[in-house]
Amino acid sequence: MSYDAILFDCDGVLLDSEPLGCGALAQAITAAGFPMDRDEAARIFSGNGGDQSRGWMAQAGLDAEQVFAAADRMLFQMFDQHIPHIPGIERVLWDFDVAMAVCSNSSVRRLDRSIARTPLARRFGPHVYSAEHVARAKPAPDLAIFAAARLGVAPERAIFIDDNPHGILCARDAGCLAVGFIGPSEHREGHADRLLDAGAHHLVHGMDEFHTLLSDLSLPLFEKA
Question: Buried b / exposed e across 152-176, counting CB within 10 Å, b at 16+?
């Protein structure tokens, strides 16, 4: 099988922003009267679509819109100071001559305040997609199918890399090659096993391993000047 596109999750794959996002959400939930630390927020919310997170908050008796607004204010202040990239991502983006898109469960607003403000955005052009662009967020396959169609490729000829089981399930159900990613800030015990249990075809630790995998899959390289 040859591959014509790579679909990237954003937080935790392109940007090393997962700890920032979970920390801001934990602070907002704690301020709303439900004590939570960053690790618990990561366990509950990482990779979720908005509807899933709102459902959890409703069960906890929290006003989801107020919590999200407070968390976004804190997170966007952090992004104004620094938007951290995953080490090695630039080499992956600019070495391989295939179509690329972002497929994130984050809101359009959050993507506009994060990935769209980095130099990485040039590689994706208009192909930065949120769960808000489709009927169902990950783990449903909608986002992968939508992005592949916008890129003009069949889903089975796309590689989908994600650091959460929701993304792996999305990729598998869409027919993509699913790659589970373990980033430098990943600290959840047993997370690699959860990605494999969700059906990841490959598991990589860091972007150097992902680059090696893409080379092994014979993805075409840009000609260097």
Answer: ebebebbbbbbbbbbbbbbbbbbbb
The Cα–Cα gap between 120 and 220 comes to 20
Q: What is the DSSP letter of 104?
A: E
Query: What's the confidence (pLDDT) of residue 44?
Result: 86
In a 13 Å sphere around the CA of 55, the CA atoms on its Cβ side amount to 7
Positions of the chain with pLDDT lower than 50, given as ranges: none
| Cα–Cα distance, 59 to 157 (Å, whole number) | 40
Residue type, 53: S
Q: Does 48 share its domain with 148?
A: no
For residues 146 and 188, membership in a common domain is answered with yes
Query: Number of folded domains in the chain?
Result: 2
**CA-CA distance, 181 to 94, in Å (whole number)?**
19
Residue 225's pLDDT is: 61
| Of the residues 41, 62, 81, the one at which a domain ends | 81
Distance separating alpha carbons of residues 102 and 173, to the nearest angstrom? 18
CATH code where residue 77 lies: 1.10.150
Would you state the pLDDT for residue 47?
66
Measured N-to-C along each axis, helices 18-31 and 64-81 cross at an angle, to the nearest 10 degrees, of: 140
Does residue 196 lie in a domain region? yes
pLDDT tens per residue, range 74-93: 989 989 999 999 999 999 99
Q: Is there a single domain that holds both residue 39 and residue 90? A: no
**Same domain for 12 and 22?**
no
Are 181 and 109 contained in the same domain? yes
pLDDT at 188: 78
Alpha-carbon Rg for the chain, nearest whole angstrom, is: 17
